[in-house]
Amino acid sequence: MKIVIISQHIFPMQTPRAHRTTELMIELAKRGYDVTVYAVLGKYDYTLFQQETGIKIKAIPIKWQLIPYSSDLEVRRTFLDKLLGKLLNSRFEFPEIEFKYRIFDVLKKETNIDVLISIADPHHIHWGVARAKEKLKELFPKKWIADCGDPFMMNNHTNDHLLKFEKEERFFCKNVDFITVPVEKAPDSYYPEYKNKFRIIPQGFRFQTPENQVFSPINSTPTFVFAGTFLRDIRNPEKIFEFLSSYKGVFKFVIYTKYLELVDPYMTTLGDKLEIRNQVSREELLSELKKMDFLLNLENENSPGQTPSKLIDYSIANRPILSLQPSKPNLNQLQSFLEGDYSEAYTVKNLEQFKIENVVDKFLDL
Hints:
single chain, alpha/beta, Rossmann fold, seven-stranded parallel β-sheet
């Protein structure tokens, strides 16, 4: 069976959608399927990976940017690309809108596709597949599955998509066979007439189920970590930083991020209590998470249908999780964790459902 996957990113990019694509393609190839993956690749050399796995890795031909946002982790966007993105994004969905026109160029080169899996965000990839289906007609893949992380038009924290793009979302929903989403509440963020096409398939990871244990501190100085991106509207750490700035006890707060806008105001006050680290590979991050006393998760505001994939990695690391709502964090709970009391640690239910083997079984059942 020939399976083609189209995604903006694969490894070594460290994003939930890149993880989704990477784990999915590896497991499908392990089972003997003919797997081809299209992504925005950059300079990373996939030659050895292709030889070892049999997966064919091909580039999506991005032409409207001097240097596209690629999978290779090399952030090198030009001033012109940034300027055009700022000027044209809200009105024209630039630069993501290019996927709508490039996906046809990709699919017309492939023949006899049994299953096509398109992965968003960006949702513009789905728009491009829908456009290709209209053009290719009987040459289009036998089955199309559109996998969605965050919703688009009805995303609670996104209010800058113009109404004219509603037709694009409706068009892809009308033409797709199945829409897969990671959590039960996610279909509520899409148009109700397409609810029959939705299937719940959680994020997939390759891991051994950790043993249950009673947690206790492992560092002489209470050390905790946040890995990811702070966002002003839905994941704002301001109240947590204000508490930490006035907290008299000792601690070390480690943050893995490349976006410091919301961290900068507190760096002088917190001094060496705050440690900023560059993003690393998932494998390296998991190793570091295991060295922490506890792991901080900030729940997305106003987006009940979304579950941070970092919670799965946190669970695999097998250290206590402190999950706080940014707008009204339980600061007493934070203080308890800093004092070594993890009795109210967050637990991810049914961790087995996130094993990639179980996730791929669900895709193949569609």
